[in-house]
């Protein structure tokens, strides 16, 4: 069994799975339940001056029967007093010494930040996370994403925090910026020990067409909520990789954004995260999901002969680069396994109307039996010359491994756009003719 | 009295209630979401009326129920009936690609019912725009599925369609001849209303040969469609056949549709002769109406029965009995039936059944239901329309694909032409005739429903089932032959 323990900027936990700072991390009761289920750490629901919440608070994006593909909330930070929160943190830390308990903080003045840092230390928290990301409510009061969207302000406030920091400081970044690495660099410059990302994305998930008002509905009105859940994973991965690859950042990363299972977690870790934080999947299914996360990740690492989860960290970061460096002479095309084809023809219509008209419908003769129920029914056939290898057909195909993309030799040496431009300028080659 | 009501309303509401209730919204959404939305979908090819099945299912998933029902009714005005009575396992559902993916086809029939029921409940008009009348008139004889399919299509093409029905209410077999637990008379009535809403006129208690003359129809109308169905049940040709308590299956089912359920008479021990789908309808309903025993008597074996597998399962679930390889020799009793004299049969090497000598036995029954098929209308119609040609089986001869008969201006479809098939076949034949009548009267050809893009086909598509319906058993035979000959699938 692979070693799943991590050390994120000095914060140790027996596995990389932390409960994110959110409704599941609101109380000692929930913290105990999370740790009983096996979570390696928990970032407490953000502590600050207690707020007052509204009803209702959550909304979701459902897709073809799958609930909560995306999720948003307009809930604010903890509505409990700092006294209660820090007391419960102390209690949890005492009962679960091997787990990581991190205090998430949000406040305003230098003095208040110092005060919060002291109280965190006193509570026995393993570290703090600075909430610079919350995109609703708190930002209107000059906190949350109002801080996180301005690198100069990040730098200033992290600076204040570091003056009083005796335990590791993680800065949580908002994705509601054009370039998250600028925020990450500011955190680094000010001396932060780690970053966590992404916080939630500004969103309106749906409009109730009877009430002509979005959900979550509050007395005829709504507001922009923070978006998260499986649908945001691609955005989060992109930002995590961006920070991991940036030579001016080089901070440990706690990855957040749509992580629901071990595979999602492994992808975040492969793109540079040390550990991950989970919220929406817990809000959907409860703390019990961590059992499979631990199990699945461990088996995966074993199958890759990795002794520790740390061996996985960053493994895929360097396969991502600029488009101009991609090999123009690489080619793959679609290949249909007629023994698996069920005859839905989604590949055909997707390619015909949505892509490059590279699939024909032809007689099934010569393709084995073709779609089983209706012999004689036309079957899709890849026009190999026309196929640009875009992947679309393999993406729409509802049968696993029915359409696969196979490498074909172009007989040409690798050449990137950058090299192409250089060789064109040097008149070493002619321009590649435009597509008809 | 051997035949008498044998159950109370409360009990009957349970036993005769829907065998498959309408989906609840959540169930419908989950099922609709399973549909892959195939292009050039096999289910459409297997539907004789060519309903755009993935299209209507997508609309259910997208909460556009009226639109969904419209898609169904545009292709098949009896879509609500067909949702209940189609043998979907050998039609659309039998062709579903899901069978090849994870074995469970989309429940197309139930989704179709969900959409059409929703339209009905919302009291929405599926065809708010009716085309201008073109001044031409078509008469239709009979108001069963074939005529309704034809009349609806004609009305939508601008014709004045007038339906002549001998019964008190329109609907034909759909109104009076479907097992109650599959479909209540209200469904048939609602469908007739949709046809009426299109501007079709119904003249009930109008019977050709009695108060309607064919010559007059031919004179007053630009074309004539015969959707006259089949006649009375075949005679068994055995002694005692006319005793009290011997009933035709369709007559028995008609009672169920015309009387309050608790007043429908049924025997205590019921024998149903024959083993087609109508026989199953009769035996299961006899049982559900309170018969102590209800038994199918069939000359051949289980493997030969014409009833669909699904129907057979229904009868078994209802604890109906089966006497296979058994022939009826005589109906016993005085004035009233008291039993049947039966004999065991065997099949000779030519596939003919013969009675096994010395195997005669008797069984007590107080009701005997004949379900060995119906007579053709040929004898009557030879009188009404001497030039109308029939085939050697007594079916009206028509041109394939148009329903045109040997008599100019006269078209036909449904059971009178095909000898007795599904409701959906009758509707399709009615529609094809409507398109052919339109072509004849206007010189314009209207294509039947086919799916959108056909570009890229090198071999020509099979297309919608309306043009060339696919029957799954035939396909499966081809499939298994191919498998035997070494083809394989992953």
TrEMBL record, chain A:
Q: Give the UniProt keywords, A-Z.
A: Iron, Iron-sulfur, Metal-binding, Oxidoreductase
Provide the 4Fe-4S ferredoxin-type domain boundaries: 332-361, 378-408
Please write the reaction equations for the catalytic activity of this protein: 5,6-dihydrothymine + NAD(+) = thymine + NADH + H(+); 5,6-dihydrouracil + NAD(+) = uracil + NADH + H(+)
User: Is Disulfide bond included in the keywords of this UniProt record?
Assistant: no
CDD domains attached to this UniProt entry: DHPD_FMN
Q: Name one GO cellular component term.
A: cytoplasm
Q: Can you provide one Gene Ontology molecular function annotated for this UniProt record?
A: dihydropyrimidine dehydrogenase (NAD+) activity
Q: What does this protein do?
A: Involved in pyrimidine base degradation. Catalyzes physiologically the reduction of uracil to 5,6-dihydrouracil (DHU) by using NADH as a specific cosubstrate. It also catalyzes the reverse reaction and the reduction of thymine to 5,6-dihydrothymine (DHT).
Q: Spell out the family assignment given in the record's similarity comment.
A: Belongs to the dihydropyrimidine dehydrogenase family.
- Protein name from the UniProt record: dihydrouracil dehydrogenase (NAD(+))
